[in-house]
Amino acid sequence: MNRYTGDFKVYPINNHFVDVRCEEEYLTEINIKDGKIKYATETPSSGIFIRIFKNNKWFMTSTTDEKNIKNKIKGLDELADNVAHEKSGLKLNIDPIQDNLIKYEHLNPSKRKIKDKIEILREYDEVIKKFKYIRSYQLVYNDKYLVKRIKNSLGTDIAYDKSICGFTLYFTAAEGGNMFSGSISIGNNTLDHLMNKEEALKERLKEVKGFLKAKHVKEGSYTTVLSESATGVFVHESFGHKSEADFMIGDKSSQNEWAIGEKVANEKVSIIDYGGLPASCGYIPYDDEGVPSYKTYLVKDGVLSSRLHTLTTASLMGERPTGNGRSVDAEHEPIVRMTNTYMKRGDIPFEDMISDIKLGVYIKTVHSGFGMSTFTLTPGLSYMIRKGKIAEPVIVSAVAGSIFETLESIEAVSNDFKLIFNAQGGCSKLNQTKLPVGFGGPKIRIKSLEIS
């Protein structure tokens, strides 16, 4: 089924570094709105990204034909000759690697008929229809099988594949003049994992009804507990992006704020980025520059330990590449991106974590979040904590705070752990949108957060 043979050679041109990345993608998208199929499409695509490093700059282009690679490299070399010559200050700290990790073709969802995928969604559609307070909804399904091959002029020759599939239910519930909107996602790297989850969906939809009569929380500072998914959004949006080194290049204040070796959190807090987790959205055993995926501790035992790099940012900052050079497709260059970013589990049971909280807030799900030095989360499902127990549902508009102050305020880390898999979502940065990433962690207790 592969379009590209991978038989092409990549040589240095006039002693300059060259790399080539081939991508093949097989994508299915299905949308069912209020019981009716809006669309169901299958879209294969492919492309080849080519670049050289010359005159202290990257020059890059794309093609769809393997036969064009040699001429494209020659064209980039000629283009570079028209640019002012500079002595190279970039040191590509990369070793040649040969590896073949094509191992998920048996999970390839594109081998399954689209009518079978629709039938799975229909089973969930029947469940949703039984909940009369769900007034409108969409079931959005995606699957993707991706094959990458990366070669460079140092001798690297890497191939790997990955499989992603899942769906999200977006809904609006209404009863007695009250409304509540939310979403529920199920995903993994195999289509079979999506089957027979009807009971779990029923429980989630039953929970929604309690929010139709929920009152808005009284604005103020509360001891706040984040669920595993909420912790993941906090780590990704408020801390992960801040760790991306391209934001720090030429910005001394950002570099000083991100002081490696400085204690920034409770010693129980460790935050990791790692693309080597197989059944994850952010799975990449190698990044798009041929660098292996390292388990990078951004925070280790409360101490700021590293940042995320491409080859370029690592060279400019005199640090090791971390395997975080990622692009959204073969038309784009690798930039610093997260893979799976999560907080390491602790050792406290959830019941013990909340047992002495007289009045607090539990954030169970999060719609969205953003941040750099400060952060804001928009919660979905939230509950009051009263006298050490989860109490009534409440509507929370926003949770906000300073990133480093919040890290310092983490009082406890639970022994739970979940890595969130969302086939529909993705991380957006610059002009590269919906890059698959994973995020998660344990439940965490924060001494004080501003809730509104």
Automatic annotation (TrEMBL):
<feature type="domain" description="Metalloprotease TldD/E C-terminal">
    <location>
        <begin position="220"/>
        <end position="451"/>
    </location>
</feature>
<dbReference type="Pfam" id="PF19289">
    <property type="entry name" value="PmbA_TldD_3rd"/>
</dbReference>
<dbReference type="InterPro" id="IPR045570">
    <property type="entry name" value="Metalloprtase-TldD/E_cen_dom"/>
</dbReference>
<dbReference type="InterPro" id="IPR002510">
    <property type="entry name" value="Metalloprtase-TldD/E_N"/>
</dbReference>
<keyword id="KW-0378">Hydrolase</keyword>
<dbReference type="InterPro" id="IPR051463">
    <property type="entry name" value="Peptidase_U62_metallo"/>
</dbReference>
<dbReference type="Pfam" id="PF19290">
    <property type="entry name" value="PmbA_TldD_2nd"/>
</dbReference>
<keyword id="KW-0482">Metalloprotease</keyword>
<feature type="domain" description="Metalloprotease TldD/E central">
    <location>
        <begin position="109"/>
        <end position="183"/>
    </location>
</feature>
<dbReference type="GO" id="GO:0005829">
    <property type="term" value="C:cytosol"/>
</dbReference>
<comment type="similarity">
    <text>Belongs to the peptidase U62 family.</text>
</comment>
<dbReference type="InterPro" id="IPR035068">
    <property type="entry name" value="TldD/PmbA_N"/>
</dbReference>
<dbReference type="Pfam" id="PF01523">
    <property type="entry name" value="PmbA_TldD_1st"/>
</dbReference>
<dbReference type="GO" id="GO:0006508">
    <property type="term" value="P:proteolysis"/>
</dbReference>
<dbReference type="InterPro" id="IPR045569">
    <property type="entry name" value="Metalloprtase-TldD/E_C"/>
</dbReference>
<feature type="domain" description="Metalloprotease TldD/E N-terminal">
    <location>
        <begin position="18"/>
        <end position="81"/>
    </location>
</feature>
<keyword id="KW-0645">Protease</keyword>
<dbReference type="GO" id="GO:0008237">
    <property type="term" value="F:metallopeptidase activity"/>
</dbReference>
<protein>
    <recommendedName>
        <fullName>TldD/PmbA family protein</fullName>
    </recommendedName>
</protein>
<dbReference type="InterPro" id="IPR036059">
    <property type="entry name" value="TldD/PmbA_sf"/>
</dbReference>
